[in-house]
Amino acid sequence: MKRYSFLCIFSPLILVSQASLADITVYENDHSELEAYGKLKAVLHYQQHQSPATKLKDDSSRAGLKGKYDLTPDLSLRALVEVGSHINHSNKEDVLSLRLAHIGAKTDLGQFAWGKQEALIHNLDNYDFTNKLGGVAHYTRDEMNNKRNENTFSYRLDWQDFRVEAQLNGNRDLDKRARLRAGGESFKVNEREIENGLGLGVRYKRDAHNVQVRVASQITHYQQGAKAISVATTGVKTGKLGGGNPWRLGATLGHYTLEDSRASASAYTLGVSGKVQLFSPVHAYLTVETIRGTNDLSAGFENALTAGAEYHITQDAKVYTEAQQSWFDRSKEDQSQWVLGGIYEF
Q1: Could you give the CA distance from residue 6 to residue 54 in angstroms, rounded to a whole number?
Q2: Using CA atoms, how far apart are residues 11 and 68, in angstroms rounded to an integer?
Q3: Nearest-CA neighbor of 144 among 46, 47, 221, 85?
Q4: Are 294 and 266 in contact (CB under 8 A)?
Q5: pLDDT tens track for 192-238
């Protein structure tokens, strides 16, 4: 049974053609376009100190539709809907969930959207290049309940080498209490509802120098007076070795704070990563990351080292393996993880 499940999950990776299947056009005419996209992800995951230690599971696959309708040469309507899988969820009725859903317009003055959107602080360009286990310092965990905000109005403007973004988040209920973690230590606030939030972001992209830098922040106010503040930046530099093999270097730095009337906790994050094409189609990568707590999290820390390699079957399909060793403070045991995974994008 386990072997059958493994083949079913990875069959899309085995059956893909050598041609790129990205940006599937569902419908198109002179004024409108509808595209389908998605990402199928599966992993065989070994995690020390877990029971069972090894699991075969879906890795948050997702699929969506995005469309546009041109009203004039300078004005178009835009919409996007994306659902994610929860095949491993204990609640069998909750197999799919709505990840993103927003509508808007693109004009000469910028792009506007309203609905459920990815928070700018979580939508930073990936610096760590890993497929599953990395991103410790990126802090994309949905700890403070602002990863994909509902009732969000966003604005984006591209000007020369810069992109400026802003988001206003409306009121919404929380599925779980907001929490900030550093290693084995955590700090929670007793909040059940977000009152409002504000996200800001700036991206600088210089193609001539193959460099990209992005800064983002998120301020979230909760109903009973608690507040969360997140600020982070990522930078990515690309190039080629003497033999023509491409390489990438990335780094991130972040500061996260969660506070209420009784206490305050903060965490600093730092990460550095590198990736290189050893030979076609094999790439290798290495990521070093750390989280350090302060204030009520001063005893918490996490250091992580992640190494991996990936094999590109086609432009849209790859298999990979990576391992991570994490070192924690006294309140949590050190952890080893390993994964064998596959990703197919369309």
Answers
A1: 13
A2: 32
A3: 221
A4: yes
A5: 899 999 999 999 999 889 999 999 999 999 999 999 999 999 999 99
